Amino acid sequence: MLTGKALGQAIKSALDKATMSQADVAREFKVKPPSVSGWITTGRISKPNFEKLRQLLSEVVGPEHWGLASTRADRADEDRGNEYKILSDDEWWLVLAYRKGDRNIRTGMLSLARTVLPDRPAGLTKRTGT
Question: Cβ contacts of residue 28 below 8 Å, gap of 6+?
């Protein structure tokens, strides 16, 4: 895993790729903006916050970006084929909305998805409690 200034640069570049501001991240993490600035400047971030940040940015950067080995789940995603790999901007937007939404929003989005596609496509597993 990256540490120090290399980690700070990785955080900054991931935020740039995700077009997220430091203020956006501060709101998401319920911290003050100088905290996020400190993560970038020093490369020091608590493990729980790092894991949450890594998850938040997982759609734009993979584990290798953070100096981590790819996981079995990452490799499974690669094996799903182009139907699941290539998403339009609108599709990415929906994924990000789902991930940032609270339980009620996620439940509503899943309910809507079930009206359009009642059965899960082969290869997709149920990962949420809804």
Answer: 56, 100
